[in-house]
Write a structure and sequence with these properties.
Blueprint: E1 7-10, H1 14-25, E2 30-33, H2 37-44, H3 55-61, E3 66-69, E4 80-83, E5 88-89, E6 95-96, H4 98-110, E7 116-119, H5 127-130, E8 138-141, H6 150-155, E9 160-164, H7 173-180, E10 186-190, H8 191-222, H9 226-234, H10 255-270, H11 275-288, H12 290-300, E11 307-311, H13 326-333, E12 338-342, E13 355-356, H14 360-364, E14 369-372, H15 384-387, E15 395-397, H16 405-410, E16 414-416
């Protein structure tokens, strides 16, 4: 076993930053590189460009092993360099690999011949093999980033999925030493298999989301309650305790959409069946319309000048990201109406036609209806009996069940959520 290797991450977006901090937390000297000098200055001062639970604390605890730099020559000190730039996607989920190509070229020009390069950014199948070089070793590794749980996933991974040009060969010592430092299984496979493995994981998640949303919608019309069904499914060994069975407002965030778009492109090129993917996309689009449809039918069709309070703008809790946010989709659909908005992290100015608020209670003041469109933990502490006096109306639309429905009805509200029929106060 070799001495502890020096690890570098090229790209200090969400993926690279969280991964670099995790590497340092496992005792490795870690170089965190970005060509953006201003970003290096901010990171060195502890000013984080992303909102991620536990990241600031983990970084502060490991500063002695973490070196932020904009000097590409510093990568020559690294035994393993991860390409860790986030992959941008457009509104249809299609990847823009330009930033990855640029930073990969920069790394290849700068590292030692014996440095191992690992593509950690998510790329389509075939990308890594197309970029192999004869003068040094390159691998692909499946990233496990989940917004809102990125530090947990990076510091305590379930397993490492490693793509290899030849999986029958042992991993390079420096790379293997680093991976073994996390104490989890290592699964080597061919490059294309690893690249598709990431998409496969997300497809299973998309399938769970689509099944859940389809059946939860039925519950809303037949008197069933999806939350009562979920424990039965989680006790089925074929589905399991960790199954994603929470109804939601379609697929958001960009990462799942990217994988759907990638497979549509590949399937189109090879004339393979893609019907299930088309169905998932249609299901997501249909469910994303739920919030706007519900507030229209419950209130706006009868009272178009109603004032509506919206809590939550991020696409999910514990993140600053609004990529394909269902909350923003709903607001944009209803832009001609009167809204006040609040999110614990996202600046309300992201909705230019709405009035931003400094707190949840301020947002709800004099509102005819309350919509909770991101399930932030602080919204789950709201008590209907306490905010009822400051609201003008008596309607709560809460797709993620932040509020207890019985408490809302007891306080005189009509309560509408995903996966069960409306609860009325009369």
């Amino acid at each position: 076993m070799m001495a502890s290797p020096t690890i570098a991450y090229a790209g200090m977006t969400h993926l690279g930053l969280c991964s670099a901090v995790a590497s340092a937390s496992r005792g490795f000297r870690t170089i965190a590189f970005t060509p953006d000098a201003a970003l290096v200055g901010a990171l060195s001062a502890g000013d984080l460009p992303v909102s991620e639970p536990g990241l600031a604390e983990c970084m502060a605890e490991n500063t002695e092993r973490l070196d932020f730099t904009d000097e590409v020559a510093r990568l020559r000190d690294a035994d393993v360099v991860f390409i860790a730039e986030d992959v941008a996607t457009d509104d249809k989920g299609r990847s823009d690999l330009g930033a990855i190509e640029n930073i990969l070229d920069l790394v290849n020009e700068s590292v030692r011949p014996d440095t191992i390069t690992v593509v950690l950014s998510q790329v389509p199948p075939g990308f890594t093999r197309n970029h192999l070089r004869h003068d040094h070793v390159m691998h692909y590794q499946v990233e496990t980033l989940i917004f809102g749980r990125a530090v947990e996933r990076a510091t305590r991974p379930e397993r490492f999925i490693v793509g290899c040009a030849d999986p029958s060969q042992p991993l390079p010592n420096a790379y293997e030493t680093f991976l073994k430092g996390f104490g989890c299984p290592i699964l080597p496979m061919r490059l294309e298999s690893a690249e598709l493995a990431k998409i496969s994981i997300n497809f299973c998640l998309v399938a769970s989301i689509s099944v859940t949303n389809t059946l939860a919608e039925l519950c809303e019309h037949i008197g069933a309650d999806w939350s009562e069904i979920v424990p039965a499914l989680k006790l089925d060994q074929r589905i399991g305790t960790g199954a994603y069975l929470t109804p939601g407002l379609g697929i958001a965030g960009g990462n799942l959409e990217r994988d759907l778009a990638t497979i549509l492109q590949i399937a189109g090129a090879h004339s393979t069946d893609k019907g299930v993917v088309d169905a998932w996309i249609d299901n997501s689009r249909h469910r994303k319309e739920w919030s706007a449809h519900t507030i229209r039918s419950e209130l706006l069709n009868q009272k178009p000048d109603a004032h509506i309070a919206v809590l939550g703008l991020a696409y999910k809790e514990n993140t600053h990201s609004v990529k394909n946010s269902p909350a923003l989709a709903c607001l944009n659909e209803l832009h001609e109406h009167d809204f006040t908005v609040y999110d614990p992290v996202v600046d309300g100015a992201v909705v230019p036609f709405a009035k931003p608020s400094a707190s949840a209670l301020e947002c709800m003041t004099d509102a005819d209806a309350l919509m909770i469109l991101t399930p932030w933990p602080e919204f789950k502490l709201l008590e209907p009996s306490k905010f009822a006096p400051i609201m003008r109306g008596r309607l709560i639309i809460d797709p993620y069940r932040c509020i207890v429905g019985d408490d809302a009805v007891a306080a005189g509200f009509d309560y509408i959520t995903l996966g069960m029929p409306p609860m009325r106060s009369w």
